Amino acid sequence: MNVVQIRVSRDPGRDSILAVHRSAFGDDEGPVISGLVDETLDDPTGEPILSLVAELDNELAGHVLFTSVEIEPGKQPSAFMALQHGIEGECP
User: Which Gene3D superfamilies match (predicted)?
Assistant: First the structure.
């Protein structure tokens, strides 16, 4: 039986996270989505609230990033946004 483990991502795993997005979204969208994730992780204005990875058999298999966004500059309330998640392959 394969067990999927969910955990908070760690910065040293960023290359693996970006690779999951490239694989999940293919040759056309993969580089764009992984670039967006990479930029968002470095953007202090987005301040990622929660970055989670899924591991299957001790290998990274998925990622989701929740970050805060302003809907209209300078106005409340803030909202939260989940970037498109990357999932590599199918879970059994």
Answer: 3.40.630.30
**Per residue in 51-62, pLDDT tens?**
999 999 889 999
Nearest to 66 by CA among 76, 87, 81: 81
The reply to whether the predicted model has a pTM over 0.90 is: no
Find all residues with CB under 8 Å of 85, minimum gap 6, and list them: 62, 63, 64
The pLDDT tens digits of the residues spanning 30-82 come to 999 999 999 988 888 777 678 999 999 889 999 998 887 766 766 665 555 55
* Residue 87 φ/ψ, nearest 5 degrees: -130, 125
d(CA 40, CA 14): 12
- CB-based contact 63:50 (threshold 8 Å): no
